[in-house]
Amino acid sequence: RVSHLAATFNTAKLSSPILLSRTVTYDAGTNPPRRGASNGNMADKAGRRRRSSSILQVYHEPPEPIEQLSDQSALPNLNANWVNAKGAWTIHFVLILALKILYDIMPGVSQETSWTLTNITYMFGSYIMFHYVRGVPFEFNGGAYDNLNMWEQIDDGAQYTPAKKFLLSVPIVLFLLSTHYTHYDLAYFTINFLAVLAVVIPKLPVVSS
């Protein structure tokens, strides 16, 4: 009887679905994953996500300290106040006219090329002057404007002032004239359009600080 009970217990033990060992099949030529491999893969993916997120970081320039703001208001900014002086707006038309005459007298330059070169030259000079160069060439402000370009210095950074509206409208009008006198040629239009974008976009409030 004892042997019969032992045989019955062993049969139940082997036939129980709980006690049966699990079998997993793999394709030929593949290695079964090692214990802890899934955790390692999750850690690698998390690490890759952490490393890739650093690419999307946006740098925010810290606000200017109170000392620097007080230095800016202590003395007039001669580097930017000239744009509101008498005759300052006229100089833009004089420069554009001088550039147009210069390119017209060059042999072999067509009217379409002359207008395009005039537009590009004015846009390039405007970008360098108002958006590329930072600070002031004077020392009496104690470095108060070292982090600001001329566009940000004009009218103490206020937007939509008469001077800034004028400086924004001049490149747009010149672009329209260049497009008209190049007879809306696609190649010239593309060049002139990219040139005006390079000057207009930095003047927008969402871009300039």
From TrEMBL:
The keyword Cytoplasm does not apply. The keyword Transmembrane helix applies. Residues 29-48 are annotated as: Disordered. One of its GO terms (cellular component) is endoplasmic reticulum membrane. It is found in: Membrane. Pfam families: ORMDL. It comes from the Eukaryota. Keywords: Membrane, Transmembrane, Transmembrane helix. It is a multi-pass membrane protein. Its main location: membrane. InterPro entries: ORMDL (IPR007203). This is ORMDL family-domain-containing protein. It comes from Podospora australis.
